[in-house]
Amino acid sequence: MPIPGLVKLAGPYGLKVIGSCLTCVMREEGIFCRLSPEALHELNSIRRSSFYPQGAVLFVDGESPRGLFILCSGQAKLAASSREGKAITLRQAERGEVLGLSSVIAGEPYPVMAETLVPCEVNFIPGPEFLRFIRNHADVALRVAEHLSMELHKAWAQAKLLALAPNARAKLAQLILAWGAGQGKPAPEGLRVPFNMTREEIGENIDATRETVTRLLSDFRRRGFIRIKGGAILLLRPDCLRTLLEQD
Amino acid sequence: MPIPGLVKLAGPYGLKVIGSCLTCVMREEGIFCRLSPEALHELNSIRRSSFYPQGAVLFVDGESPRGLFILCSGQAKLAASSREGKAITLRQAERGEVLGLSSVIAGEPYPVMAETLVPCEVNFIPGPEFLRFIRNHADVALRVAEHLSMELHKAWAQAKLLALAPNARAKLAQLILAWGAGQGKPAPEGLRVPFNMTREEIGENIDATRETVTRLLSDFRRRGFIRIKGGAILLLRPDCLRTLLEQD
DNA sequence: GGCAATGTGTGACCGAGATCACAGGGGCAA
DNA sequence: TTGCCCCTGTGATCTCGGTCACACATTGCC
Question: For B106-121, how does the pLDDT look when each residue is reduced to its tens digit (9 = 90+)?
């Protein structure tokens, strides 16, 4: 039986539990984390913490907006799919980001679906309570606007990636370079990026099939631009990848 | 010589001048129009009205965010282009919408460029003044969040249109249906939609070339789905267009 | 009038990438 | 071990739509 008030250290799926917004280590990074003490207290009181395994669906396309989801730890993707089964991922969300925010604000159905990519700790906030919260705290509304601006810019970046790139090779190069810029760590031979997506998932990011992703990655490897070794991808020649972005 | 305080009725480019937020006929529709009287007064004092001809560029991709532009009348497009000259329009903005808002909020360069499609009356608000304004008026921040949510949903819809449609035919059908839903007026034979884009501009909306747009429109016309007569397009069989969305 | 600029229609060709088919190969549980 | 499932690699083929080329219409301007 859990002792009330005591924060457990090991949660489901082997996650380290964060538990409270007040003691969260993420407080520097997350958009909703840097708030005034009162706002943070109120936020902490209306949030409901839960844990999801990999592959859990937080909400689906077309569902009316129950509320929003704060990704305290883990990763998730926002995706859409056509009726014929073609799927595309519109954005990857990292910890600290908020999912479903725009739908709650606009009062419209979620336009995309959200799915966890790894085990995640998620805080759920019901829509009506969040709207009440935001109306009471002017600083929160501005934070919300900032987060939505970031989301909008990422959405446009994705649309530009999809439509403006001359071919699939450029799209894949750009994706890999973005990984490098985002989470790459310097290594003796180049940038090292953790890498655990399947070719199919990569394809859903750049609107290409599994087979072409396979062929292009082999091509990059053959040309010495990258090296792939279980769980990580090594960017040996980011400069060469960059030249692929524009040339046909 | 203009008489001070007297609102002119005919402006440049044959536009009817709106002139003041307080007397604007748009006050029902625009996001920034339904505000408290004090907020509206302050907004009216920091805005600067100007008029642009067709094809004027309000800001370009990569420019640091001087401020935001309220589209009082007219239409504009948000577009991006690659260095090789390929262009794509990401969104059409109608009167009442705000351009550049997300960049001012986020303090990041405009990620797209904005260009007027017809002569427009535009209110410019410098970024710093707008940020001061928004911090003083909690209700405005919420409006901003609502507008950004709308923009985000439209951006995702555009990305889905581009990536999920099985072919160019489906993309064009979807675009035409969207026109019909947005600004179509019932006519004896079907929905009548004003239509003054070139095939090339249509192509930039659906990521296709001028030639394929020509071929597809001819195809739709031959099959009796639409009729095109100078300045308007008549949707004769929207149901048939809808069947094209999914089938290959 | 001529003439340039711009938008449109159409055919011929071709190439990137989707699709289909099949062969490994690694992890995992029974 | 066997079997199953999922991921991966690779060849053969097909097809949509891009590219090129050219004819024609319309408009506006000198």
Answer: 999 999 999 999 999 9
Check residue B25 and give its pLDDT.
55
Q: What is the pTM of this model?
A: 0.91
Q: Which residue reads 């179509």 in tokens?
A: B184
pLDDT band at B149 (very low <50, low <70, confident <90, very high): very high
Side chain identity, residue A112: V
Which pLDDT score is estimated for B82? 93
Q: Which residues have Cβ atoms closer than 7 angstroms to strand C? A: A 167-169, 207-209, 211-212; B 198-200, 210-211, 214-215, 217-218
Gap from B76 CA to C11 C1', Å? 36
Q: Is the CB of B219 under 7 A from strand D?
A: no
Q: Quickly count: other Cβ atoms within 10 Å of residue A48's Cβ.
A: 11
SS (H, E, C) chain B: CCCCCCCCCECHHHCECCCCCCCCHHHHCCCCCCCCHHHHHHHHHHCEEEEECCCCEEECCCCCCCEEEEEEECCEEEEEECCCCCEEEEEEECCCCEECHHHHHHCCCCCCEEEECCCEEEEEEEHHHHHHHHHHCHHHHHHHHHHHHHHHHHHHHHHHHHHHCCCHHHHHHHHHHHHHHHHCEEECCEEEEECCCCHHHHHHHHCCCHHHHHHHHHHHHHCCCEEEECCEEEECCHHHHHHHCCCC
Q: Spell out which residues of chain B touch residue A111, defining contact as CB-CB under 8 Å.
A: 153, 156-157
CA atoms within 13 A on the CB side of A238: 18
Contact B69, B58 (CB under 8 A): yes
Chain B interface includes A156 (CB < 8 A)? yes
